[in-house]
Amino acid sequence: MLYALALLAASTVVQPVVSGDWLQAHLNDANVRVIYVGDGGDYKKGHIPGAHLIDHMDTVTMGANGHRLAANDALVRVFAKLGVSDDSHVVLYGDSPMATGWVNSALAAIGHGDQVSWLDGGIALWKSENRPLEIATTAAVPGTLTAKPASDLFVDAAWVREHLQSPTTKILDVRTQGEWNSGHVPGATLILWQDLFADVKTQKFKSPDEIKALFAKAGVGPNQGVVTYCAIGMRASLMAWAAKSVGVPAKIYLGSWQDWSKDDKNPVAR
Fold this sequence. Notes:
This protein is α/β, with parallel strands linked by helices. The chain is built from 11 helices and 14 strands. The longest helix has 13 residues. It is globular, with a radius of gyration of 19 Å. The N terminus is likely disordered.
């Protein structure tokens, strides 16, 4: 009996990436919720059957501190409106990996990050494989969603300052070379989000071993975790998700450079 339960648990573990084959076979599963992150116009041209639309700005609050995650109660309302419940397996795809990364972080902020998969290859690969599409928009049945503790995924500037010399933490700057040259967190290593993909256009990910090698090339040791930052937290969200997907412990400095650069207490390297 215990062995059977263990097999059942193993079979229901949510994988960080799912294939088109997997998703097509599970489109009608009661607990699977497909969410498209992107533009409403593109969504209306054809989307995966049953997918619901979200703009990453639906999960953002803008103010004096810039581009930040909305409060947890607002995030719960946003995702519940899309049909997400406590037991849902959410599959994300979208037109921008950075926006999809942000929405992934929004789900993680309310404690549901381990129940999310990304569709490998996104809609471009889905279409090229002649998989089903629909034009009609079906209203979601609202879900029953509860915010849960989000552990310690997100960190602030004070945490980053305290870990600048930490032997167990590698700071990763997920911006462009030009942004990096204009100033960066001391000790950080530049890493490009595009290098996560075998094909950036279709958002086809490299293999887990290749992604592990990318982090190793960035200087991440076998006993190290990473903290990621970018300009406003979107690219950092993508890279942190990628790290976690291959077993590298990851945190996100969600305030990122918009936050770090405005405080004189935060050192800047050039």
